[in-house]
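User: I'm preparing a small set of examples for a lab meeting where we compare how different chains pack in three dimensions. I only have the primary sequence for this one, and I'd like the structure in token form so I can line it up with the others. Please keep the answer compact; I'll paste it straight into my notes.
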Amino acid sequence: MANLLTPEDLLTPEDLEARLREVGATRYHHLHPFQLRLQSGECSRGEIEAWALNRYLYQACIPQKDSHILARMEDASMRREWRQRIIDHDGEREGEGGIAKWLKLTDDLGLSREDVVSGRLALPATKFSVNAYISFVKDKSLLEAIASSLTELFSPMVIKTRVSGMLANYDFITQETLAYFTARPVQAKRDSDFALAYVLENAKTPEQQQAAIAALEFKCSMLWTMLDALEHAYLYARPWPDAFAPVDGALKREAAE
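Assistant: Understood. Below is the structure token output for the 257-residue chain.
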């Protein structure tokens, strides 16, 4: 965690924004070894399948956590702004929205929809992480819940690198397969602009500012933990007994040993 602020350390909005951006620069999952391998073509197909299957649980939880945040907003204009996030992921009707596009990714990878949607093959750390995120936005202050969404400040750069790298390095990945990512940079910019403005305006004390910074650190640690679990299970061949098992030899290190 970043150094705690004292009552004398009240940050200007500019300094608070700089501290929040520093969290992303040092803790966001663009630095994780699994992410670096994914975008550079070093992952096996099985690892990519496992990533897509596990990541689905995170994608599916986003409108749930946003619903919890929405329910706590007393201002109608804020609710109108925030509910667009739910529409972006759930769509206006069946087959639309980000979750449907993520299922296009898992479909193209040959994964069973029932396996993906049920979450029964996801790693324990994935399930724990997703549940922890939902609990966080329910139990913490509205300021902290909104601050935790500020990973969207950093996601556009990751998306650009991930998409270009996957298209260049995996012949079973197409632009259509990665359709989920097409709209996300614009959506993330819109959402993070709103959330950042809210945090900068409402974090008025050192304690509130520290809480906002810690909330963003929590969210980064949650995303990092999910990749830690994937790397451990599918690179080092230590999967949970009931977890997804790829068939393309992804657990190659155990066989080599």
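A couple of notes for your slides: Residues 249-257 have pLDDT under 50 and may be disordered. The two ends are 38 Å apart (CA to CA).

User: Perfect, thanks.
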